[in-house]
Fold this protein.
Amino acid sequence: MNHFKLKYFVIVGMFFLLSVNVITTAQTKSLEERAKDLVSKLTLEEKIGLIVGDGKFISAKSQKGENTEVPIANRNSRMLIPRLSIRTTALTDGPAGINKGPAPERVKDYTFTTAFPTSTCLAATWNTEVIDKVGNALGNELLEYDYDLILMPALNLHRNPNCGRNFEYFSEDPLLSGKMAASMVTAIQANGIGTTLKHFVANNQESNRRKYNAVVSQRALRELYLRGFEIAVKEGKPKAIMTSYNRVNGYYPPERPELLKEIVRKEWGFDGLFMTDFDMHYGDAAAQVRAGTNMIMGGSEKEYKEVTRAVKSKLLDERTLSENLIYNMKLKLDSPSMKGYEPSFKPDLKAHAKVARDAAAEGMVLLKNENNTLPLNIEKEEKIALFGKISYHLIMFGTGSGGVRSYKHAITIDDGLNEVGFEVLKDMEKYYKDYIEKIKRENLVPPYFDTPKHRKDNGIKGNQAPPHFKNRLVAFSKEKDVSRDEIKKYEERSDLAIITLGRSAGENYENGYLSITKIELDLVKNVSEIFRSAGKKLLLFLIFPVFGKQQVVETMQMPFF
């Protein structure tokens, strides 16, 4: 090759590289420019309507107009402004899976979803490859079930062991939380679905969750409460962040430009959307928009009027609305629904179930295993005395937005043991299942909720539990009191004993920890003494959202095995 040809190929190669760079840059800018173009065509009413409730208050006039799109029935997003082809953003709760409504009775073709392990369980794997697999499976379900955005991952810290939502959070460690969240974000968003980091920031308790003030030093804020979010933003690049209900050093996070604009956007390079937590009810809607909040959710008429008054009285510049809405439009334009994706509504649930099972197995923690108690030998230890109502009634995750109501199948410890070939004493099964049915039939208010505050919050009158306690009733009711004589009779007919103690947890309550009761302590003590004196093994399964006070620690240190 002569010198001229070499120069020619070098020049062509450089031109090609520059062309690729220009095309890539143009594509990056095109989303921004398209978003700006859409915003420029919005009326003032539409701008306010998109910021407050994602179109909840946009008038019928804006929702009329010609659109060539062929309507698709039963889509999660709907056409909002036809003349601009702007749709609502189809979103759903997480983080343990798609939390849509449970299957209605007698519906044959209901689209079930996978219940994945809780965030705390996933963090206990210390394995980002596991998180990648879960995130990819969940992202695929979101795509095929017609969603654009999921409200997860949650990465507040396990600062308060009583917090009812700890099961939704990864860890007490900001580094672990940030790395797990970043991996989850990356895996889900590889499917084209947006993720939402929450709850930003210093949101670590459920008591008085809409009003309390978290007083935090700048060092603690930077090194602990912001650190996990920073890692997740820089490494995962989420499409959205949800601000928290609580105040931080006197101010609500969605009203603080120092948090949203200075730290998250400028320092961390966040290019996504800020939304408020849903139905916040407190704070100033206009102040939230000025601070950089892009979407006030779920949006109320009061908030819509506040923003409208602020614009008309010149306390809020319309340019601020326009600048904020660019992020809303970028999220929409980059969503599957506005890109015209046609979901199948048929993800591979069988494959996803295996991903969920494998992740759950890796996240389980063995606290103690004296004298090779585990693994069990099915040839020698066939018959099991299975104690504890939670052995027969599974607690899969907590209640509230962090649960999954649309799963198809769940297996109890009792069913699992029988399925692999062990024999649980049949009279024990009946003993506990009858007790569980009695709890459901009587439907009494569990002792934990029998307080003035809980009664008021849940609309409880008399002694009957309200309908929404359906998934809490057994978990929060008293354990069955089993006498020593009964335990001895079970011991004589079994090869080993298993006790399951469990607690539920949930949004809006500090119920991640409930004191170990005397009935439970006596059960552990008596079963331990009787089976150990007979030279038989004892296993204790603890299904708790979080371990807290000293009484739990002391209980765990008893000679279980």
